[in-house]
Amino acid sequence: MANVLDDSAVRRVLAVMAHPDDVDFGAAGTVAGWTARGIAVTYLIVTDGDAGGFDDGMTRAQMGALRRDEQRAAAACVGVDDVRFLGYPDGMLEPTLGLRRDIARVIRQVRPDRVVMPSPERNYERIHPSHPDHRAVGAAALDAVYPDARNPYAFPELLADEGLEAWTVREVWLTGGPAVNHYVDVTDDFDRKLAALKSHASQTAHLGDGLAEELRGWLGANAAAAGLPDGRLAESFQVVDTS
Asked: Which of 38, 119, 184, 185 is the most exposed place for a label (fewest CB within 10 A)?
């Protein structure tokens, strides 16, 4: 298991994700626990999710606007009120220098102790978390944490033009990857996680009551892998020391 920072040493967390709802599927229960303990959490969503949904009657611009609103509503369910969007095109992400700079900018603005992001590695046992956008964001965000955000000579315009001083993130939590070394018991915050996911109605309404059942099965398997008692639910992560 990982050597993880105690939450008492964490003041701010930044979650960098590809699409609206990614953070809620991967980490909303954990986020709810953090905000309940007074940790400030910011969401940075790289795309508007305009390539998602099931309504052919909506334009892609309308879908993007809807999904931004859904993400804000979902964030409120778990105590997050700082939600930012970069507006990159959904389904077309690459870990470019421009994306690294945009994420490094927000890291320097928020100055988080911990950053949550998708794993840049493909998970062959569970392929759905390994969407190419997820892996691209994971690669760019990890590079933004190390070395970009901490190096004052990387993207010097962030300091020279925007006054953003270098910042060292102490810890990264990866979601959806092939390696897991840390579990968080989210049983007591399951209802808040479920409410957050239901806020993404354009993506989850068609699942009906099956959404809760699917979540319980997935989170229950995580809890069993963590050695937690029957009936407990857990989210899983790979924690990386980046101090």
From this structure: 38
